[in-house]
Amino acid sequence: MAAAILDGKGLAERIREQLAMETLEFRVKTGIVPGLSVVLVGDDPASRVYVRNKQNAVGAAGMHGDVIRRPAETTQAELLSLIDELNADSSVHGILVQLPLPKHIDSRLVIERIDPLKDVDGFHSSNFGLLAQGNPRFVPCTPLGIIELLKDAEVETRGAHAVVLGRSQVVGKPIALLLLQKGEGADATVTVCHTGTKDPAAFAREADILIAAMGQPERVTADWIKPGAVVIDVGIHRKADGKLCGDVDFASVSQVASRITPVPGGVGPMTVAMLLSNTLHAARLAAGVVGSQIQG
């Protein structure tokens, strides 16, 4: 029997509708419009698409969003100066620097320059540290979206063996930390595989929940999957024929798994929805207003 599809696109639409209502309520209560500034350095085609999608979503949610474009030749000092300006601007509640940056710019230095209270990507060391402590303030958007997908589908994570393929700061490490938290959508036993892991397929075959964030097109095949496992595909790649695929061979894996995310339409839309959630949360923090936040 083919796996049930975890519809990230549909869930993201519902979350965005909820956030639009919460944003309107916040604006009426405080007179403040949540603001997100996205910084795009260079002309990477994929980054342009991501930024456009984010900008459209921010506007639809009733927030203010602007894109600050800088040429690829922008120096590190110039970019850091821009971050300082955004940190000092009270109308900007969230700052997102679109990655990857040109090779001559130190991405870590740029991320650390962002005010932690405006770090809606959740990449600043202080926010990452709070997540590791189990007291998160801002959680990276893709991992947060994965947790929301699992919760919405009522996937039992407590006591489940979750295997994460990949240890990046963007997905692998934070999703492992989230699954280790106490509470709904967490309390899992977590194994993280990486480039130093011998035979990652052997670990994958033990997973009740498999999260593939390897950055390798269709690397995960049916023989990696425990029958009935839940498979979350974080990867996105464009094949020679122009079609998109993930890190998982969807055609074969969907015949073994119980549930699976598609590419596109799975994790991607959830990432944007969580960015909106983090931006509203940042505005609430700045205004001293207590409100609910989507949180894994």
Care to count the β-strands? 11
State the secondary-structure class: alpha/beta
The percent range for helix content is 40-55%
Separation of termini?
30 Å
Oligomer: single chain
Total of DSSP H or I helical runs spanning 4+ residues: 10
Mean pLDDT: 95
Spans of at least 5 consecutive residues with low confidence: none
Encode the helix/strand succession as letters.
Answer: EHEHEHEHHHEHEHEEEEHEH
Radius of gyration: 19 Å
The gross shape turns out to be: globular
In the sheet with the most strands, the strands line up as 1-11-8-7-5-6
Strand-residue fraction?
A: 5-15%
Largest sheet: 6 strands, parallel
Short description:
By secondary structure, this protein is α/β, with parallel strands linked by helices.
Provide a descriptive summary of the structure in words:
The chain is of the alpha/beta class. Helices cover 40% and strands 15% of the residues. The chain has helices at residues 8-30, 45-60, 76-88, 107-113, 125-133, 141-152, 172-180, 200-204, 250-253, 267-287, and strands spanning 4-5, 35-41, 64-70, 94-97, 161-165, 189-193, 209-212, 230-233, 237-238, 244-245, 259-260. Strands 1-11-8-7-5-6 form a six-stranded parallel sheet. Strands 3-2-4 form a three-stranded parallel sheet, with helices on both faces. α1 packs parallel to α10 (267-287) and α2 crosses α10 (267-287). The relative contact order is 0.17.
Reconstruct the topology from this structure:
Elements: E1 4-5, H1 8-30, E2 35-41, H2 45-60, E3 64-70, H3 76-88, E4 94-97, H4 107-113, H5 125-133, H6 141-152, E5 161-165, H7 172-180, E6 189-193, H8 200-204, E7 209-212, E8 230-233, E9 237-238, E10 244-245, H9 250-253, E11 259-260, H10 267-287
Parallel strand pairs: 1-11, 2-3, 2-4, 5-6, 5-7, 7-8, 8-11
Antiparallel strand pairs: 9-10
Helix pairs in contact: 1-10, 2-10, 6-7, 6-10
